[in-house]
Amino acid sequence: MSRVRKIAKNTTMLFVSQIITYIMGFFITMYSARYLGAEGFGIISLALAITGILVVFTDLGLGTLTVREVARDKSLVDKYTSNVAVIKLLLAFFTFILTAVIVYLFGYADEIKLVVYIITGSTLVNALSGIFYPIFQSYEKMEFQSIANVLNSSIMLIGTFFVIFYNLGIYSFATLYLASNIVVFFFIVSVYIREFNSPSFNVDFAFWKPTLMMALPLSLVSIFSLIAYRVDTILLSLLKGSMVVGWYSASYRLMEIFLFLPGVFATAVFPVFSSLHLSSHEALKLSYQKSFKYLALLSIPVSVGTTVLAPEIVLLIYKSAFTPSIIILQILIWAIPITFLNYIFGTILPAMNRQNMLLKVTFMAMILNIALNLVFIPTYSYVGAAVVTVFTELFIFILCLLILSRTFSKVRIQEVFFKPVVASLIMLLFLLYFKTNLFLEIALGAIIYFIVLIAIRTFQDDDWDILRQIMGRK
Asked: Would you report the helix, strand and coil content of the chain in percent, each value rounded to 5?
């Protein structure tokens, strides 16, 4: 199977699973937000933000390192699996203690503390599943992770209806996260044993130090990125309260829905980038440039369309209690085109063993994000937090683009963005003057966008060749 078809196969599997997951996630978010209200939804979102930052200490870059090294040398699979499993168990225990200390120091109410503890338990179980995901990824067998994603969301959706039907409280919602991750963990373990047999568990302490040192830059990248990504929610909770967190998180959840696209793409392409870095600089350069082009084409219309349709989207999903979320979504959605492209940078730099450079960028972005949030949140509340998010992503984009321009031919921004911007503006005119059912507007807007792209010859011969390879016709 060609590299293009492998990427397409794995991307398609993850894409389909994520589509199913996000459809179910749409209903989970909608019904839980309506049921809990802005304040209750804010508490759940705050717990997810805190654990979302601290869960990085359960991995410390080991997952990414495992994918890179096993993708290059399959004989290392047992060595990495057995040793990483033991390390992660120890890290999970440390993470739970750290979470308890931080929640205590922040002085949150008892209700918030308990919700945080329950959701922390769920993230720790998910971290243990993360022992096996990198092995599937390095073997480019994404179907198992795809099934796990759908299984998790199915349990969450069924559980959400159960909690609402029996009029249960916020603790029951938190417990759903724990229950779904426990089921997924046992599923992943059973699949791994079937596919690769039981890991040998030959613990080699001499292996730990060099492995952790190699993973350290990757772990710090994750830590800095997650702090920059989640600190706004925590600061809003401390400075403005749970209701504001609920409004902000409602829009953030909608923005995050679109991030599955670059996430799926990056997951599928990372082992390919890692291999090409050693075998073919020209092929790596082409993959980088095409990735840049395609993610730009996908992301720009999302921002334009969502900006126009935000009032309809928010009121449909959350009802009038979340009206402040409209302006938040209209601002946050402009982080999407930048974030899509930043996923490429965050994938290709570690694949090229340049994680130290990525580390410097994410550290500067974290400091900038915290400083700006501390300045703008007290005065501008959720609007300030949303603007800071977009600006931080732009800061990362500019620095990474400059770094990679030294290695590859500089990507011409005007060529990447010009045609999708033209097509998006034509789509915008349609959305402004054609008002009907929201879902029909979205569908027709997308059709118009791609028709315009084809009409202005956005796709070259090599793009069509790649499509034919994906379809198995070449």
From this structure: 85, 0, 15
